[in-house]
Amino acid sequence: MKPFTNEELTDLIQKATAGNQEALEAVLASVQDLVFNLSLRMLGTFQDAEDASQDILLKVMTHLSSFKGESAFSTWVFRIASNHLKNYKKHMFAKHPLSFDFYAQDIRNADIENVPDLTQDVEKSILAEELKLSCTNVMLQCLDPESRCIFILGTMFRPDSRIAGDILGISPETYRQRLSRVRRKVADFLSEYCGEYGNGTCHCADRVNYAIQSHRIQPKHLDFTAAVPKKTQEVREAMEEIDVISHDFSFCRMYQSPESLKQFLKDFLKSPSFSMVGNA
Known about the structure:
This protein is mainly alpha-helical. It has helices at residues 6-17, 21-43, 46-62, 73-86, 92-95, 100-109, 124-138, 145-157, 161-168, 172-193, 208-213, 223-226, 233-241, 259-270; strands at residues 229-230, 254-255. Helix content is 60%, strand content 1%. Helix 2 (21-43) runs antiparallel to helix 3 (46-62).
């Protein structure tokens, strides 16, 4: 979908809050990919990201009349989404938290040599790409929610530090300092252990069967490689400027939000339970 100009979006928001259902659908559709991609990096799995995205989009809808245009609409949505995701407890990794120590031990100690072929006739290179994309997103779960959100904003979406600080409720200087620290923490880990992005011994192609055995990827259900990334100029620039150890971090790619999320919006707006934002 072609991005709306600020004037077009302002007009759509006014129409949506006045009760125009088509305008409301267009407003929500304009930010659903942003919301889904933030949710995916914050939560680590497609299913959890889709569930959280539905909650966030409903929050955006029911609070739309409170948007006063004092900031960009995307900034306002980021603030709602970030606050929701930092406190989100229904996702898998809230129950089974990860750490960089756990990741490192798994890389060092996993018995990857004695696992049978579990590829189910799916090309190994495709499974290796799925594992890489999954791993670099799941790895972000090793960070605490605040650090994770800072890293994702600064590495993938790259707002001005003033805007990022406003989204997170911290000063621009604090945001810059924390971003620098967390980027270095992630970069150091990848440099030491990851053979795809750094100098480590861990290579996705060698761990495919182990990953299948551990239920980290499913040959017949490839979420990441199925969601074709959008190659935007902003994403290319972000990938080029992250750190010297990598020019194509997988968590910098923009994925299309699932069709089921798009259908959820359409179905909800047509459902009897729907009440217009202007009356919320």
